[in-house]
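My current task is to audit a protein record that another person submitted. I need someone to confirm that the token line plausibly describes how this chain folds. Take the sequence as given and treat only the tokens as open to question. This is what I was given:
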Amino acid sequence: MEKRFVIALAILVLLGLGVIVVFSSKAKEPVYQSKSLDQWLDEYNRVSSMDKTEPASKAIRAMGTNCLPFLLAHIRHADSHLKQKLVSLIQKQKLVKLPFYGEDPYQSTSVLALRALDSQASPLLPELLPIAQDPKTRWLGMLALLAIGTNSIPTLEKACQSTNIQVRQEAVLMIAMLKVMPPPWFSWGWHNAPLNGKPLFFLGTAVPEQDVREMVNMLEHSDSAVRRASAEAIGLYTRTPYTAVARSGIPLLTQALKDGDEGVRRAAGETLKKIDPETAAKAGVK
């Protein structure tokens, strides 16, 4: 009985929060053809096919830069521990089918909206940098920078200066993707939301060999932070199917052992040991 009471209370709390969010945001959001921005973002969830996303993308472009503050808020949003706990409790019961998603349904769709806006989304670049560097929001921030396109490259180069190695590795991967792949750069799909079972759009990435090859090329980048990040990231792609392209970087990695930047030298040595321990040993890498 106590457990059912807790679940019922959790449902009421979440319903209340949902109502508050809906009514507080609708009055402020831009509107196109009598639909609010969030309603158009939800269309991305509902269509279940990238081929059917153009009507929502057209609406996003029509609302233009007025969308940016709201898209940014969705992208930087992180659920509180309490909400995560409540959603977890509700998922364990099957008696009540809830009308809402349980997780923010507009995070990945907001990134897709940035892709629709293209260069119009560039004013967000300075604000997306700290989001891409925050461990809680890093991956979505990186995808947002990727979605905006090649205008993001200078921002991603700044992210290569991060003290967090994962941020550096992901930033240089995003740069490689932007340089060698056609838009939209990311991969995508739909899965069923945990609470209402409705389709929910999500984003991801696939890393073909050409991306790794571009990171090899960036071992000669003018910015030492990018060179270091490239050497570090290549070390993640040393096994099949990347073996050959990683080994193609041996000459430049060996050259990087003499780089004027200590971080570049260290990263090159660590990656060289993974790819070709014998060459690394001959070069004096310990």
The two ends are 63 Å apart (CA to CA).
